[in-house]
Amino acid sequence: MSYDFDKDQLALFKIHKKIILNCTADTLFEAITKHTSAWWGQPYLQSKEAQDIIIEPRLFGKMYEVWGNDEGAEWGRVVGFKRNTFLEIEGRLAMPGAVSGVLYFNMETEKVTTLRFAHYALGDINQSQVESFNEGWTNLLDVRLRAFVEQGARYGIGHPAPPSQASNQQEEDVIHFEMPNQ
């Protein structure tokens, strides 16, 4: 992908989601950090050659795609986490045009586990990309991750995509896009 030096479009966005899951925080944390490839797959990867997507659950651990032959791409770094409670990842997060981004997964458990998710980014990003990211996060978290932690269904790398489902966007979901000085 080439960069358009004549275009100067700095924007920021935030996406917040709240998803209630029938699992423990331990099950959810393990799914996010140890079984990522079981539910995370195409088209939400940088390469069709991706063989794995890994999140190392430790401070300064990496989030990255493995393509084989020692090739791949880093998405970001773990900058904060507490097992079964939260995970924070900073980096470009495979976003074309992004200068920086943050993913935040927060887990709260009572009888069920509530996943509060946030994605913040700054860079050369447009409104249609933000809408695409929002749809992608709904599919990844509310469809694929939910199916994995609640039913053991695998829709990640090397598995078929989930059946088409209507958006489960919640009233608590927040989507914000801002272009300063425009």
Tell me what you see in this structure.
It is a single chain. The protein is of the alpha+beta class and 182 residues long. The protein has a single domain, classed as START domain (Alpha-D-Glucose-1,6-Bisphosphate, Chain A, domain 4, 2-Layer Sandwich), CATH 3.30.530.20. Helices cover 21% and strands 37% of the residues. It has three helices and eight strands; from the N terminus they run E-H-H-E-E-E-E-E-E-H-E. The protein has helices spanning 25-33, 36-39, 127-151, and strands at residues 11-21, 52-55, 62-68, 71-82, 86-91, 98-109, 113-123, 174-178. An eight-stranded antiparallel β-sheet has the order 2-3-4-5-6-7-1-8, with helices on one face. Strand 4 and strand 5 (86-91) form a beta hairpin. The mean pLDDT is 90.
Q: What is the topology?
A:
Layout: E1 11-21, H1 25-33, H2 36-39, E2 52-55, E3 62-68, E4 71-82, E5 86-91, E6 98-109, E7 113-123, H3 127-151, E8 174-178
Antiparallel strand pairs: 1-7, 1-8, 2-3, 3-4, 4-5, 5-6, 6-7
Q: What is the highest CATH level, the class?
A: Alpha Beta
Q: How is the main sheet built?
A: 8 strands, antiparallel
Domain unit count: 1
Give the ordered list of helices and strands: EHHEEEEEEHE
Count of individual helical segments: 3
User: Shape, please?
Assistant: globular
Question: Which strand order spans the largest sheet, edge to edge or round the barrel?
Answer: 2-3-4-5-6-7-1-8
Average pLDDT score = 90
From the alpha carbons, calculate the radius of gyration and give it in angstroms. Answer: 16 Å
Low-confidence segments: none
Strand tally:
8
At the fold tier of CATH, the topology name is Alpha-D-Glucose-1,6-Bisphosphate, Chain A, domain 4
Kindly name the structural category. alpha+beta
What is the percent of helical residues?
Answer: 10-25%
